[in-house]
Specification:
The protein has nine helices and ten strands. A ten-stranded mixed β-sheet has the order 3-4-1-2-6-5-7-8-9-10, sandwiched between helices. Helix content is about 25%, strand content about 20%. Helix 1 crosses helix 9 and helix 2 crosses helix 3. Strand 5, helix 1 and strand 6 form a beta-alpha-beta unit. The chain has about 325 residues and is α/β, with parallel strands linked by helices.
């Protein structure tokens, strides 16, 4: 199902991520321990809410999250193991910390602690800043704050190995991860695109007014390996110089057809620009949202654009392979 770098025809399509993305929680999962988390607000940003998946030796059950939503797992299960690697998750534009719950559960079952948060202003329930530069600037800081919290403040921080930390990011979360691991975006490079397409977004207005962010990007050298899936990139955002410090192992995925602002050729170009070539995998006949956890019936009905794949594509079968590859990658590079 997975093949190496091949140029594919581009397909652009827009999408509106509905609040119903929270129904992804109904996706069956492994016997992972589940705990809600909240990173307190501080000088670096607002409170961050999310969930932690942990290895758990108890029998699988179901947890009611309210509104008829359930999640397979064991609430507040004692963490099984010690000196465990940590994986932090960054969701896509207008997503949630539940968008990749199947991957998180598989990783927890494989011996990893997984922590995922909602990025304020860019979620299914709160998209108030989704088109602003502030979200792109703050997302990497959110991930650093999450890692700080897990290693220093989380009630079970003692079970974590601070030298074995990985990152998983999808879509805008993959952009976020690329910055966290050393990428330095040039937001001013958006100018030609804004001029060409007469962009009227808040970001384009900021570019025209000379207000594109120029402050140093937030990096976190504690991240030792990263999985990045379908990052949305525009030409000039990164070049070789701006990616020169990205030197950790990367498993880079892209869909065949793209979508939601993701153009496959830009990911092909990223693969060539990285100083250390990633493990690069293209998923034949897939679209952008094929990387989101398989949809339960209620979500398929409420948000078909999230759940409908190209004819002949089997999302469940793909995720079985995708999640297995994620566990193998992190197990290999976080030893």
């Amino acid at each position: 199902m997975i093949r190496k770098h091949t140029l594919m025809s581009q397909l652009r399509f827009g999408a509106i991520i509905l609040t119903a993305v929270y129904c992804l929680a109904a996706t069956p999962a492994q016997a992972a321990g589940l705990r809600f988390l909240e990173v307190p607000a501080d000088a670096a940003g607002p409170a961050l809410k999310g969930m932690v998946w942990t290895p758990c030796a108890a029998q699988l059950s179901e947890i009611a999250l309210g509104g008829g939503i359930t999640l397979a797992g064991v609430k507040d299960c004692p963490v099984a193991g010690n000196r465990l690697p940590l994986i932090v998750f960054s969701h896509g534009r207008r997503g949630s910390f539940l968008s990749h719950n199947d991957t998180a559960a598989i990783l927890a079952d494989a011996g990893f602690v997984v922590a995922a948060i909602n990025h304020p202003g860019d979620t299914a329930r709160d998209s108030s800043r989704t088109d602003e530069f502030s979200v792109l600037v703050e997302r990497p800081r959110d991930m650093k704050r999450l890692t700080d919290f897990m290693l220093r403040t989380w009630t079970e921080a003692a079970v974590l190995d601070s030298k074995r930390i990985g990152l998983f990011g999808f879509s805008r979360g993959a952009y976020t991860g690329l910055v966290v691991i050393g990428g330095n975006p040039d937001f001013g490079a958006l100018a030609p695109l804004c001029e060409k397409e007469r962009g009227a977004t808040p970001k384009c207005q900021d570019v025209r007014d000379g207000r594109a962010p120029t402050e140093p990007a937030v990096h976190d050298p504690r991240i030792k390996a990263a999985i990045l899936a379908d990052p949305p990139l525009f030409e000039g955002l990164f070049n070789r110089e701006r990616l020169a410090d990205v030197n950790i192992p990367i498993l880079l995925w892209r869909s065949a057809l793209g979508g939601d602002g993701v153009v496959p050729d830009t990911i092909d170009a990223l693969e060539q620009l990285l100083p250390k070539r990633p493990d690069y995998r293209i998923v034949p006949n897939s679209a952008h949202f094929s990387f989101i956890a398989p949809c339960p019936p209620k979500l398929t009905e409420a948000a078909p654009i999230l759940c409908t794949d190209p004819p002949g594509f089997d999302r469940k079968a793909f995720h079985d392979a995708f999640n297995s590859a994620a566990a193998t990658f992190f197990r290999t590079h976080l030893e």
